[in-house]
Amino acid sequence: MNEKLELLQGTLDLLILRTLLAGPAHGHAIAGHIQRTSEELLQVETGSLYPALHRLEAKGWIDASWELSDKGKRARFYRLTRAGRKQLASERSKWDAFARAMGMVLSHE
Amino acid sequence: MRLPAFLRKLSWLFQRRDREAGLDEELRFHLDEEAEERGRDAARRELGNVGLIKEDTRAQWGWTWLDQLAQDLRYAVRTMPRNPAFTLLAALSLALGIGANTAIYSFMDALLVRRLPVADPASLVALNWHVSGNKRLRNSVVHNESGFVHRDPRLGLVTGIFPYPAFELLRKSVEGFSVLFAYHPAEKTTILIQRQAEVANGEFVSGDFFPGLEVAPAAGRLIFADDDRPGAPGVVVLSYGFARKRFGDAALAPGEPVSINNVPFTVIGVTPPEFFGVDPGKEPAFYLPMHADLLLGGDGGSGEYLDDHYYWIEMMARLRPGVTLAQAQAAAGSIFERWVAATASTAEERANLPEFVLKQGAAGLDNLRREYSRPLYVLLGMVGLILAIACANIANLLLARGAARRREIAVRLSMGAGRWRVVRQLLTESLLLATLGGVAGIFLAIWGVQMLTALLATGSDFVFRAGLNWHVLAAAIALTMLTGLLFGLAPALRVTRVDCMPALKESRTGERPVRARLLFSLSQALVVSQIALSLLLLVGAGLFVRTVMNLESIELGFQPEDVLSFRLNARQAGHTDPEIISFYRDLQQKFAAIPGVIAASSANAGLIGDEAWGWAIVPAGTPPPADAPTGHGDFSNTATHVLATGPGFFSTLRIPILAGRDFDDRDRAGSAPVAIVNEEWVKANLANRPSLGAHIVSLWPGKMLMEHGKPQEMEIVGVAKNARYDDLTDVFPPIVYLPYQQNTGVPAAEMNFFLRTSGNRGAVAGAVREIVRQADLRIPVTNLATLHSNIQREIGDQILFARLCTAFAILALAIACVGLYGTMSYIVARRTGEIGIRMALGAPRPRVMWMVMAQVMALAIAGLAIGIPVAYASSRLVESLLYGVKTNDAMSLAIAVATLACAALAAGFAPARRASRIDPVVALRHE
């Protein structure tokens, strides 16, 4: 249970986009959500989270704006753009295909 | 907001400060949230290096490279003034190099690259024909011609002149041409506007000329097809510049009356400012319909439009879309060649038929290109070498400086800077330096182009339209960047290849580095190449200076000093035979009476650099030579130059009369026709027979020269010493001089006057203008200059070329000497300790000095050893530009070698002296 998994190259973007599908969130919440839903198996390093968020923003897949958090503090909230949704769909189908292929090879008798 | 990624990043660039603050706040918020969950310390630990996160995040904004560039630039700007001598020297030599290159390239661009300022220039083609090999125009279907014929090494004789019937045929029958138009120069016409006359060059154009080029008028309208027919009213289109000059404003010109060669015309329109016709080397002041030459009494009357053997009009066409040059060449070629074959009437004519050639016309006619592209390539080669020398120089200085900065670089590298990052920083510094030089160079180029254009304008019949445009500017910028990389890259790579530890251990003043030998050998190789390149330029300059010296010492046969010359054309102002002859004679008498004029005479050509007349004149009773017919232009081998002169011609110009007498007032209409011949004519025609009193006949078939249908006969009354007429550099031609008052040559039209003056030529010139003004207001005085300056003008291009080459060679030498001086100074400074030890051990000062000078000489000799064979081989490239000098001229080579050796020794002397003055005590303590 305590064994943390290293994130595979390029998967963080997909995780962030998927998380934001549920609605706008700030960086800390995104990291928390990924950690919780992966049952603490995936640990998002802050050192890679923020560069990733800004990279996705630069690509136009997510938008950012300053809003108040549920505790009433100013936080930078990210939300999916339409291009982001499209990107998510294509990344996801790629990932699914990849995972299935890996599974088939690894479980081959 | 959906911006493309680039624009989004760009907008972030402008909101940097906000984003920076935002990122701080975002990370602080993250920390606070985390702290609430598991306490501040754990949160801090989890977050790790905040600075690194920030840097990584900022990197995503996409402006890291810009940041680093700004950083490098700031640093470069800060370090530059720390070495003012280096910066100034480097920037100056670059400015000179880039400036010279840009200036010469502007001319290349104007000549070789630029296209005609008309719609779709790429579809234009120029029609030409050629006869291969060494054939001449004689014995061909060309019985008479008016226009340029030039010899091409590959095609033989090439020309663009055609008979008018060929134009009409091609216009009707070549499918591949969407339009075909013709033109013919209207040279030296007298144009009178508002009682002010001047001589200007224009162009006769066919009705399709302007519609075919798709030119829109700046005012009024241009010439239509209906204007170009016999009997059409006289209309003229002015060029924009000419209209502005004469009417103040182009819009005022249409509708105004003008008189051209004393025939009334009406201005109907003005061409746009950028338009100059189809020849980039010309600038016609006006355009007339082709058939207007009938109004002006053209060369052969209306017959010229029907004559299959009179070649005079030039043509351009537009290709239909999709038609290639080769297809059009084949189609038009077969039509023309079939037609021209039908015009041949003898076996010789059939053997000599013209072959059709179609040339690209996008850049206009190639007369200017042919004349100047070779000298320009030579100049471009020279300035390219200068820039290479300057680059080598700066690379050398940078190497020396880089060695001095080894510690700084070692510190950077040991603190974790990547080698590429340091190279980039060093390159930024060299690019900044290059930019500094480039900007100064562009300003230099603007000045240089203006100066060169002005100098060329006084020595050339061509018009140059060089100037800074966007492609010249782009070339200059590219060149600047290239030089920056060129001189920066090698030193940057070299100095960043350091071993950090020993470099860091060095003292601040620097010790002899481990890799010193390598470093030196690169810098010495650079100096050697500079010397070799300078030698090339010096040899080139030597050859061209010798060429000019030879040209200036050519034997003229007359004395041009103190002779004022000018030109009048009374025929173009309405004077006719026989009145025009007495008009000129009266004028000559009035000019002779001006105070300060010793003698005055006249001739129907300007002796040097002007056109020349000639045809066959042979002793009476001799059968005419086979290639007898000729007129103006390409002289056949047996043609005689003919000059119609006024009384006192020989005494005024001081051409010695070897036997007989000068012309005088006895030789006038009605008296027995006489002639004076020169030695060369006697040698060619009379062998050992007595010349005085011999009778000769003029064989030109022109109407005016035939007396009632039989050739004009004359008696020789004098033999003159050989004197130049027409050409300056060839052998003396055979010449027959005729008195114009007897009208035995071509009809009197233009007259050149020669006044031998003593004292104030300005006052004489004023008196001349006043006399002509009183005689006839409609006649402008043109080409008023001393005969000497006319001759200088004839070789003006060569003089200018030689001066430029000399200037470039001196520049190259100076830059190379600075390089040698810098390198030697650096070597001496590096060897201070060693020299100190030598001297402490008893080496005498002269010996130390000799040691340094020996190194200088070794470098110079190595440079010469490379340069001499290269100079020897490459001087062949300029062979066609030389006069009276062989390409392997030993004198030029010896002078260049001596100059270079002296300059090298002078440059090395100061460092050598400094080395010999080293105080051993100070030098040893210096370690």
Could you explain the architecture of this structure?
- The complex is a heterodimer of chains A (109) and B (927).
- By secondary structure, chain A is an alpha+beta fold.
- Chain A is built from four helices and three strands; from the N terminus they run H-E-H-H-E-E-H.
- A three-stranded antiparallel sheet of chain A has the order 1-3-2.
- In chain A, helix 1 packs across helix 2 (27-37).
- With 927 residues, chain B is of the alpha+beta class.
- In chain B, 50% of the residues lie in helices and 16% in strands.
- Chain B has 28 helices and 27 strands.
- In chain B, the strands form four sheets. In chain B, strands 17, 18, 19, 20, 21, 22, 23, 24 and 25 form a nine-stranded mixed sheet that branches. In chain B, strands 5-6-11-8-10-9 form a six-stranded mixed beta barrel.
- In chain B, helix 2 packs across helix 3, helix 5 packs across helix 15 (419-459) and helix 15 packs antiparallel against helix 16 (470-496).
- The longest helix of chain B is centred in the middle third of the chain and has 41 residues, at 419-459.
- At the A-B interface, helix 3 and strand 3 of A face helix 1, helix 2 and helix 4 of B.
